[in-house]
Design brief:
alpha+beta, two-stranded antiparallel sheet, about 25% strand
Length: about 190
């Protein structure tokens, strides 16, 4: 959307998807759209977490001090790749009221690898295991990403599902690298 691709991982993914696409649809300047998304999601998550605290205390405690969601915005600005990732975390203020914190990472390096969502087993790879995978797929970064997703999916079948879509985004457009699936899915954020 607006020459930008979004990747989403986390809880309340429908809300993340709708807010991200709405921000990009309404604001054509990349940095302003990302900032608008951040502010809108803080408000949205605050409401959701206030409700969770009252109606589903155990769930709320599970979210506390953990990532609620992560969203990556990927685009090209003046011919250069740009990746901005926002991580939303739930904390409490001194009075115990839910407080949403957003940490941001911006990267314009072509050789970065970022993981959204479940990454415990990826993070636990030894340097030798990581290097072996990295060197095996150095010329095919889409397959390296698929390999990492498959690794986590083996441990989190309930929350990470195949197939894995791979695409190439360049300054000249967007190209699917994995076969396009025919589907009648009406809610794409769920898959």
């Amino acid at each position: 959307m607006n020459k930008c691709v979004i990747a989403i991982a986390g809880h309340f993914d429908k809300q993340l998807y709708e807010m991200a696409t709405s921000s990009l649809r309404q604001i054509s300047v990349f940095d302003k759209a990302v900032k608008a998304f951040e502010e809108n999601m803080k408000i949205s998550y605050s409401g959701l977490m206030s409700s969770e605290k009252i109606h589903n205390r155990n769930s709320y405690l599970g979210y506390l001090n953990n990532r609620l969601g992560s969203v990556a915005f990927i685009t090209f600005i003046n011919g250069q790749p740009m990746l901005e990732i926002l991580d939303f975390l739930l904390e409490e203020d001194k009075l115990g009221k839910p407080k949403i914190k957003c940490s941001k990472r911006k990267c314009d390096d072509r050789q970065t690898l970022e993981v959204l969502g479940e990454s415990f087993h990826i993070d636990q790879l030894s340097d030798a295991q990581y290097d072996m995978l990295y060197n095996r797929f150095i010329s095919q970064p889409d397959l390296l990403a698929a390999e990492f997703v498959s690794l986590e999916a083996g441990y989190h079948k309930e929350s990470i599902a195949k197939p894995i879509d791979r695409f190439l985004l360049t300054n000249h457009g967007f190209q699917m690298l994995s076969p396009k699936r025919r589907t009648n899915i009406k809610n794409p954020y769920r898959y």
